[in-house]
Design a protein that fits this description.
The structure holds 2 protein chains of 2 kinds. By secondary structure, chain A is an alpha+beta fold. Chain A contains 5 helices and 6 strands, in the order βαβααββαβαβ. Chain A has 2 domains: about 60 residues, 2-Layer Sandwich (Alpha-Beta Plaits); about 70 residues, no CATH class. Chain A has a 4-stranded antiparallel sheet with strand order 2-5-1-6, with helices on one face. In chain A, strands 3-4 form a two-stranded antiparallel ribbon. Chain A is rod-shaped and about 85 Å long. Chain A starts with a strand and ends with a strand. Classes of the chains: A alpha+beta, B mainly alpha. Chains A and B meet through helix 1, strand 2, helix 2, helix 3 and helix 4 of A and helix 1, helix 5, helix 7, helix 15 and strand 1 of B. Strand 6 of chain A pairs parallel with strand 1 of chain B, so a sheet runs across the interface.
């Protein structure tokens, strides 16, 4: 952590977006932006990579489908084939149509739950986790842009005030 | 750049002069305020009904399924009727939150949270019925394919009843995580607004430490979109599979290929009616008329009208196909439904489900809150009777006329059904007092495009925002105690209550001995004229509040740490 960081508070998403663009235009790195609601286009403006969570969901779905196929093949065909209503389980392919609903459900089950678990772990969300937003107003109506200072404190201050920050908090770390 | 443009012809979805902060205040108000008398009355009634249901369930489980009105001809009646009814009601929640999200319908945002809550609570009611019907509910886990001590005894994957187990459990659990993920930012808002430590702790726990970084929001939106994409086919599959319980059988009246789409349409129909019932009450009780507007009610009425018409088409198609099939048994099953001893149930179903929603063609009617409320109740009654008609009238006159009979429910059947309605309302009423009932983060994201304040600004040709260049600058130093002097405000009122202190004659106590008072706070207190334990011990609620308003340091902290009590103890030890 740098010795000094600046928290610039904004009270409007449009003002924030203009500010982010101006800061990026100066080739400065934005550490973080805390928002009370999703601001569309902010991730691109900040230069964040697109999220890959949808891809993980697809892979989890494939896993769920595989689990369903293997499980039902083992249970209904290999381990204990039964003759139900005059329809014996001789081969997987003949019985497969009856397995489609469960295949679908397990695909969705795996894709949804494992994706959400991945999201919670990656974004560090779980019960008893302490919130890390620097100011309680960031869940209400304020946005905070966090920038590290590297010997350019005054220049940054002027820039951020000029972009319409309603408040600047200069945090000095003396540890 | 986020564009907030919306065609001027669109009516505002958030009424009143509201900015982001006003939204937080309005949504948090029902949670932070106290329950009124009406809430307690309704809650007590619901709780009483629930307890009656619990009694009926205990009686069923301890005595046996024989306590129900089933007989050897009608061997499946209210239990499955209620199951299908509750599952169907649940479907609207997912439809609103998932399908309307995929279609980017902004009006969903005021109602999706409550609709999803309704989904979860009603699916819980639905699940109760098959579990009770098992007779030995503690063995319910036998429906799960787990290796067991009975040799290679597995569940039967050819059975639609087992498909139901998978469908309903996937549906319930996926709906729950979808709902909870959406709730995290709103719990975060309540957490950051909470003043009392208990509430702060609880909402902190529920919010999973939601922080709202840009990356979190990016993932949050992607997860919501993918979950909506998964939940949409899921919700269609659930009622499809529920309809398979009947459609895959060979009973005339059940053996029908139209069942899956017909059941899904019926589910959405009844679910929207239940959402309408709940929200018309909730918007009034929780003062959310600015968010759940007449426009929302009108749009839901249109959905009710369309799905009601689809259901009507299905009823008529069913009749036609029964005649057209040329199968005598099939023809008789439907003739018996309409003209047999259960004609009244059939008529009720037709009137409530097909005729009553047609009044919604008139704008005056579909924008009337009273009529909407009445129709929503009528539709729910009608949809219960639809399931009753399908199930009981197909069974009560079977292939053997000597065993033809009627079904009459016992008080236990009725008790369990009323009990689930009570349980549902208990859950919903608790939810409406403790949860953010509107997805406030989402509402804030559409406020500039669809909020009344911003629409007016846009119409007037004024900018939606201004860049002010007079921000304030402050400094925070981490890692060492700040030595800045705390400004002393007027403290005469406080000193009057606590008694003054004369440094010359009295002994100065070490206030730092009180837990919660550090060197800085001691300095502040001294600045106010508080030097002794005796003074601290006189703190009561009024003085604490006064103290908080003067120091502005940690609101509620002094009272929470019970400075007065601690000071009294220290005082006693000293003497």
């Amino acid at each position: 952590m740098a010795d000094t960081i600046i928290h610039a508070y904004y009270d409007d998403d449009d003002v924030l977006m203009h500010a982010v663009k101006r800061v990026k235009a100066k080739k400065l790195h934005i550490e973080e932006v805390y928002c009370p609601f999703p601001v569309h286009g902010l991730d691109k403006a900040m230069g964040l990579e697109p999220t890959r969570i949808a891809i993980t969901s697809f892979m989890y779905g494939c896993l769920g489908l595989t689990v369903a196929i293997v499980m039902m093949k083992f249970i209904m065909i290999d381990d204990w084939p039964m003759d139900i209503g005059g329809k014996p389980s001789f081969s997987y392919i003949e019985n497969m149509p009856a397995f489609v609903p469960v295949m679908f459900e397990l695909t969705v089950f795996f894709a949804a739950h494992l994706m959400v678990i991945t999201f919670y772990l990656r974004s560090r969300l779980w019960p008893f986790k302490e919130a890390e937003n620097p100011d309680p107003r960031t869940t209400d109506d304020h946005f905070i842009m966090e920038i590290e200072v590297h010997n350019n404190e005054d220049e940054l201050k002027d820039l951020l005030l000029d972009t319409g920050a309603v408040e600047l908090n200069i945090i000095k770390n003396n540890h | 750049m986020a564009s907030h443009y919306e065609a001027p012809i669109r009516k505002p979805l958030v009424l009143g002069d509201k900015g982001y902060h006003e939204v937080s205040v309005d949504i948090a108000a029902p949670v932070e305020g106290r329950a009124n008398k009406m809430w307690w009355i309704v809650f007590s009634i619901a709780l009483a009904a629930f307890l009656w249901g619990v009694g009926a369930i205990i009686y069923t489980v301890s005595t046996g399924i024989g306590t129900w009105g089933l007989n050897k001809t009608v061997n499946w009646a209210w239990d499955i009727t209620n199951f299908v009814w509750w599952v169907g009601i649940g479907h609207a929640g997912t439809l609103i939150s998932a399908v309307l999200l995929l279609f980017r319908q902004k009006w969903r945002m005021a109602i999706n949270r409550s609709a999803e809550a309704m989904t979860i609570f009603s699916v819980i009611q639905a699940v109760l019925f098959p579990i009770i019907h098992m007779g030995r509910p503690w063995l319910a886990y036998w429906v799960v394919p787990i290796p067991n001590q009975f040799g290679s005894l597995w569940v039967n994957f050819n059975s639609p009843l087992l498909w139901d187990v998978f469908a309903i459990s996937t549906y319930l659990s996926v709906s729950l995580v979808f709902w909870w993920t959406g709730l995290l930012p709103d719990f975060g808002m309540l957490r950051d607004r909470a003043v009392k430590p208990f509430q702060k702790k609880i909402y902190g726990l529920l919010s999973f430490g939601w922080t709202g970084r840009a990356k979190d929001w990016q993932r949050f939106e992607e997860v919501s979109l993918v979950l909506a994409g998964l939940a949409t086919p899921l919700v269609l599959s659930v009622h499809t599979i529920v309809s398979f319980d009947f459609a895959t059988s060979v009973i005339p009246g059940w053996h029908t290929t139209i069942f899956p789409p017909y059941f899904v349409a019926g589910a959405i129909f009844s679910g929207f009616a239940m959402v309408q019932t709940l929200l018309i009450i909730m918007r009034k009780v929780s003062h959310l008329e600015d968010y759940i507007t007449v426009q929302h009610i009108e749009l839901m009425n249109i959905v009710i009208m369309i799905t009601g018409s689809i259901v009507g088409c299905a009823y008529i198609t069913e009749l036609f196909i029964a005649w057209y099939s040329g199968v005598e048994y099939e023809q008789y099953a439907f003739l018996n439904r309409a003209t047999g001893p259960y004609w009244w149930a059939y008529l009720l179903m037709m009137t409530c489900n097909v005729v009553s929603p047609q009044v919604m063609w008139f704008k005056k009617i579909r924008t009337s809150i009273v009529i909407s409320f009445i129709i929503s109740i009528v539709v729910n009654i009608g949809m219960w009777f639809e399931r009753f008609v399908i199930i009981v009238t197909s069974l009560h006159r079977d292939y053997l006329p000597s065993s033809w009979t009627m079904f009459s429910p016992t008080f236990v059947d009725i008790g369990i059904f009323i009990g689930t309605i009570g349980f549902f309302f208990v859950l919903f009423l608790l939810y409406s007092r403790t949860f953010p009932v509107i997805a406030q983060a989402e509402v804030k994201s559409i406020l500039k495009s669809s909020g009344d304040r911003y629409k007016k600004l846009r119409d007037a040709g004024q900018p939606l925002y201004t860049i002010k260049k007079n921000g304030i600058v402050r400094e925070t130093v981490l890692g060492e105690e700040s030595t800045a002097a705390t400004p002393v405000k007027s403290s005469t009122g406080l000193i009057k209550a606590l008694g003054s202190f004369d440094k010359e004659t009295q002994e100065v106590d070490d206030l730092k001995k009180v837990k919660g008072i550090g060197p800085l706070m001691e300095k502040t207190l001294n600045g106010l004229g508080i030097y002794s334990f005796l003074q601290l011990s006189k703190l009561t609620k009024t003085e604490y509040d006064l103290l908080d308003s003067i120091t502005e340091a940690f609101p509620g902290r002094a009272q929470r740490d019970d400075w007065a009590g601690q000071a009294k103890l220290l005082l006693n030890n000293k003497n």
